[in-house]
Amino acid sequence: MVWPKKMVHWTENNTAYLSVPFTWNLPEAYSRCVWYQQLGFQVRAGGPAVELMPNYLSGLADVGGHVDALRRHNPNATFTSRGCIRNCPFCAVPKIEGALVELRDWEPKPIVCDNNLLACSLRHFDTVVDTLKHLADVDFNQGLDARLLKQHHIDRLRELHLHCVRFAWDNIHLESTVMNAIDRLLAAGLPQSKIRVYVLVGFDDTPDDALYRCQTLKDRGI
To answer: Is residue 2 part of a domain?
Structure first.
C-alpha cells in the first residue's frame, strides 16, 4: 500500500480524529476541524505536525494524548521502538518522540517505521527479525543508521524477505560510512536493486554537494 502523503481523519461515535503528518497539512486540518465542529463532533488532533505546532489548532481541537493512527495511514506499518539516540538539527524526532525506547508490545507488520532500529539492543533487534521472518516485503521504512551497522545486523537481515534496505546520506562527511555499509551488504549477497539511500538536500550543504551525493549513488547503481 502506498502511503497517503496527507492528513487522515475519521470518526468514532461523537468524536472526530485528525492525524496530521506534515506542517504543510495544517491549513487543511484547520478547515477540517471547523467542518467537524459545525457537524457537532468533538475534535481530537495529533500527529507530528500537531506536536510541532500545537497552537495552530488551538480552540478547535483537543491536542495531545495517544491515539493509534498509524494503521489509518498504512495498515501494513508498525513501530517496534520510538525515539532516537541522535539529535540531528534537521530532524523533528527528538522533539516529538524523545529518547530511544524499545517497545515490548508491537504488532508484526512488514513496514517498520522505527527511527533508529540499529540503536536498539541486539536482543531487541533479534526479536524483531525473528518475529518478521514469516512476512514478505519487509521494509525498515525510515532507514537504518549506517554508522551503527554491525556484521550481526547484516547476518540477521539476510534471514528476512526484504523489500529493500534503506540508509541515509545526510551530508558529505558520511560518504565513507555509507559506502562501507553498501559494500558490506553487497558482499553479504544482498542484490544491488534492494539497496536504497535517502539523500538530504538543502540543509547545510551546497547544490554541488547534493549533486555529488546523488551522482555518486547513481554511478553505483543505487
So the answer is: no
Q: What is the pTM of this model?
A: 0.91
Q: Which of 70, 86, 101 is the last residue of a domain?
A: 70
Terminal Cα-to-Cα distance of the chain (whole angstroms): 23
Q: Among 118, 162, 156, which Cα is nearest to 138's?
A: 162
Provide the pLDDT for residue 57.
94
User: Would you say 168 and 143 are in contact if contact means Cβ atoms under 8 Å apart?
Assistant: yes
Query: Of 70, 86, 111, which one is at a domain's C-terminal end?
Result: 70
- Which range marks the domain in which residue 190 is found? 76-219
Helices (H), the chain: 26-38, 48-52, 70-73, 93-96, 122-132, 151-157, 175-187, 207-219
| pLDDT over threshold 90, residue 132 | yes
Minimal CA–CA distance to 50: which of 24, 68, 31? Answer: 24
Rounded CA separation 131/146 (Å): 23
Average pLDDT, rounded, for the chain: 95
Same domain, 193 and 96: yes
Number of domains in the chain: 2
Sorting pLDDT into bands at 50, 70 and 90, what band is 65?
Answer: confident
- The verdict on 136 and 201 lying in the same domain is yes
The candidate with the shortest Cα–Cα distance to 108, out of 85, 78, 88, is 78
Q: Cα angle vertex 35, ends 69, 31, to 5°?
A: 75
- Using a 10 angstrom Cβ sphere, with 0-12 exposed, 13-18 middle and 19 or more buried, the burial of residue 58 is exposed
How many CB atoms neighbour CB 43 within 10 A? Answer: 23
